[in-house]
Amino acid sequence: MLASRWFRPALIVTAVLALLGFGITPSTAATPITVSTAIGRQDGSSASVTGYVVGQPTATTTVVRSNFPNDYALALADSASQTSTSSMLYVQIPTAFRASYGLQSNPGLVGQQITVTGTLAAYFSHPGLKDATAFSGGGSSDPGPDPGDYYAGAEGKTGPALKAALHTIISSQTKLTYDQVWTALKDTDQDPANSNNVIEIYSGRSISKSSNGSAADDWNREHVWAKSHGDFGTATGPGTDVHHLRPEDVSVNAARGNLDFDNGGTAVSQCSGCTADSDSFAPRAAVRGDIARMIFYMAVRYEGGDGFANLEVNNSVNNGSAPYIGKLSVLKAWAAADPPDAFEKRRNEVIYTTYQHNRNPFIDHPEWIPSIWP
Q: What pLDDT, in 10s, does the model give residues 141-161?
């Protein structure tokens, strides 16, 4: 009797608070956990998981980032730029939530942060979240590094002053060896639809990461800023800067050679949408802006220091071994017509976070191109 009288006031207080509209939060209320925590806790318990939508699982080790086949599932990760399926949680989407959270119906959710409540259990024979009872969010993109911090020294500047400030910022980088470039490219240029492949920059072909080399139909390391334009070869520095090194088919790489960039020419074998003539090369339309932004990066990053030539963009072709590349007016038009896409942004992020620790400012701020090259 004494014990029951001792606890009675607490019960009365609880009841009074409830009557007055003050909710009591149960101790079992779900606090969202991270994706990595959810992957490690596949015990059949209920949990709310917060993460970024990175695609749709279609098999145990396959997540697609476009051309979604249906609205039945999505993959979450702790970073919107994650590409390793081992760091993803596969989420089953019940019928009631497919119209709002299925990726075939809502492809714009990729890169968005959401919270899902469900059961921590394997899905597609992979760490998963099944039988979801609630979805929320979808309006917050992965912020990545704060560009206000990274580009603080460039704030308020235009023209030559902006170029000089950006040179100082992006010159702080980790330099790779030419052998290390192979490893980097297998990550930076990974096919979003097949983690075993890379995408060739000019041809757009998806090819096995292991098919790198010098044989016919292998892929090799293409210098988008042709290494003879400034005679830097494969030396650590401009010759190994992954911001302009891309996978490309051996024969297509040879067809491009050290040509400048311009419109026109005839079709290039094994490179659909590419054209070339005696003094210039044009890639497929989908990556012309990418090419331009890489060229502009190189012209800002390499200004005659580091023992290398001062690289500059000009409005000419046939630049040969001079430290120039063109054609400026065409590259500016390409950049404007083909703005940065998800693949290019992810690539910039991976180079920054994992390899060189510097960024291509013209992917983050395309508007700086006409400011520096009016």
A: 444 445 558 999 998 899 999
